[in-house]
């Protein structure tokens, strides 16, 4: 029957004199001896000079260094939990485990064992790992909880909470890019999404696009104003401190590339018109779309073939635009169109509802459409190319294609081209809420990370 160390009675003593003793340093030899002799009690000696376990057999004392342990059972438990691998790394100060670096001597192994077990760690290796990650004074449950959340260090968790990050992945992604708080990183995520969704090559292209969509700005913006906003809001604040992730197409000093971008990028031209002569960008009307009623009514029809225009086409187009969220739709038609349509009742109904507006008789509707577009910077839904007007009006030749929204009606289904989803509905609805990086806490020390 195996000897049960747990049944041993421990008797504290201050010293022993005149007792011949045999000091055993090897714990395995000492435990084997205890198992063999089966003492009912073991003396526990602790004074300034010594700390030992002692048992007496046939007038001879056998001692083993206690090393801070209170029972032999605790030594056995410590061995099972890997504490026999404990080196001189730690010391205990008022119950708190500290790094021995700079301290004269380590604490007894038993003191370290009890302090670690009190924190709830089951194995020495677990605590050593926790200590290396800054959890030296944390209980095991806290360590396990925080590391399970994906944080590498206790300090990282504390900083993440303070800076408003909700999870470790977000914190480390933001940290890698150099952001010191969630508010700033959230702006980065908005800009990254714009860049990816609209397939911009660089971050500053996406940034300009977001600026032009901003509802708080005037619709007329000079090239210099756009450039100044961009420079003010970019991360780092200058070319020399711009982080690596913020890729750029435009120079701080040369506005040529920015002007070319405003004139040619399809995402930008869907927002408005860049006037090269005046170096001015003007957004289209935020709520107005003008429908060329005659052109729509004649869709897929031909006078030569004896076809007639259809008011139904106008209704289908208006329904499509309304469904997309357009706030204001003006349909302009020649006065003669009412006499030509095959569905006069439908035309009259649209006229009664003030959906259709007729231009004065003997007046070309195209003239009203062109002037309307010039005045309001409104998009025109038409398949007309306005070739005749382009020959005599440079503004039309420069901008007619940008202003036009093309359409097809097939079996009462409407398809639109050139609308790009950006001019629909209220202009404010398309504000990306991207505020830029001005006054954000972007870490200069980490700006070169990527």
Provide a descriptive summary of the structure in words.
The protein folds into four domains: 5-66, no CATH class; 80-148, no CATH class; 187-283, no CATH class; 288-430, Rossmann fold, CATH 3.40.50. 39% of the residues lie in helices and 17% in strands. The chain has helices at 27-37, 72-80, 109-118, 124-132, 140-148, 154-162, 168-177, 182-197, 203-212, 223-233, 256-264, 266-269, 293-297, 311-323, 337-340, 344-352, 365-376, 387-392, 394-403, and strands spanning 9-13, 21-23, 41-46, 51-57, 60-65, 90-93, 96-99, 220-222, 272-275, 280-283, 288-292, 328-333, 356-358, 379-381, 404-410, 413-417. The strands form four sheets. Strands 13-12-11-14-15-16 form a six-stranded mixed β-sheet, with helices on both faces. It has a five-stranded mixed β-sheet with strand order 1-3-4-5-2, covered by helices on one side. Helix 8 crosses helix 9 and helix 9 packs across helix 10 (223-233). The protein is rod-shaped and about 135 Å long. The two termini are 66 Å apart.
């Amino acid at each position: 029957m195996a000897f049960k160390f747990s049944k041993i009675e421990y008797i504290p003593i201050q010293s022993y004199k005149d007792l011949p003793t045999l000091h055993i340093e090897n714990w395995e030899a000492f435990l084997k001896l205890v198992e063999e002799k089966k003492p009912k009690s073991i003396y526990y000696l602790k004074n300034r000079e010594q700390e030992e376990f002692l048992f007496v057999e046939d007038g001879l004392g056998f001692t083993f260094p206690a090393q801070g342990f209170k029972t032999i059972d605790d030594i056995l438990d410590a061995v099972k939990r890997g504490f026999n691998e404990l080196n001189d790394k730690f010391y205990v100060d008022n119950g708190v485990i500290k790094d021995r670096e700079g301290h004269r001597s380590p604490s007894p192994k038993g003191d370290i064992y009890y302090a670690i077990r009190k924190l709830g760690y089951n194995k020495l290796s677990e605590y050593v790992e926790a200590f290396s990650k800054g959890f030296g004074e944390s209980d095991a449950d806290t360590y396990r909880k925080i590391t399970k959340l994906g944080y590498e260090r206790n300090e990282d968790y504390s900083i993440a909470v303070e800076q408003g990050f909700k999870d470790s992945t977000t914190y480390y992604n933001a940290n890698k890019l150099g952001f010191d708080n969630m508010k700033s990183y959230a702006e980065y995520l908005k800009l990254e999404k714009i860049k990816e969704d609209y397939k911009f090559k660089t971050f500053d292209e996406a940034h300009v696009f977001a600026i032009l969509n901003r509802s708080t700005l005037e619709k007329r913006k000079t090239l210099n104003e756009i450039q100044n906003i961009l420079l003010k809001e970019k991360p780092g604040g200058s070319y020399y401190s711009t982080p690596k992730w913020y890729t750029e197409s435009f120079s701080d000093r040369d506005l040529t590339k920015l002007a070319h971008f405003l004139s040619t990028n399809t995402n930008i031209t869907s927002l408005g018109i860049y006037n090269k002569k005046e170096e001015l960008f003007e957004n289209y009307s935020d709520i107005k779309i003008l429908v060329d009623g005659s052109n729509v009514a004649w869709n897929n029809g031909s006078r030569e073939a004896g076809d007639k225009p259809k008011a139904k086409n106008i209704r289908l187009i208006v329904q499509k635009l309304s469904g997309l969220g357009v706030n204001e739709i003006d349909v302009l038609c020649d006065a003669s169109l009412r006499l030509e349509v095959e569905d006069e009742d439908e035309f009259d109904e649209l006229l009664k509802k003030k959906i259709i507006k007729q231009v004065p008789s003997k007046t070309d509707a195209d003239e009203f459409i062109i002037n309307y577009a010039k005045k309001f910077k409104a998009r025109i839904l038409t398949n007309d190319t306005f070739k005749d007007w382009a020959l005599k009006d440079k503004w039309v030749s420069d901008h007619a294609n940008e202003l036009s929204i093309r359409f097809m009606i097939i079996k009462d289904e409407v398809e639109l081209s050139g609308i790009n989803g950006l001019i629909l509905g209220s202009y404010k609805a398309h504000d990306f809420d991207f505020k830029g990086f001005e006054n954000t806490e972007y870490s200069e020390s980490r700006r070169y990370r990527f």
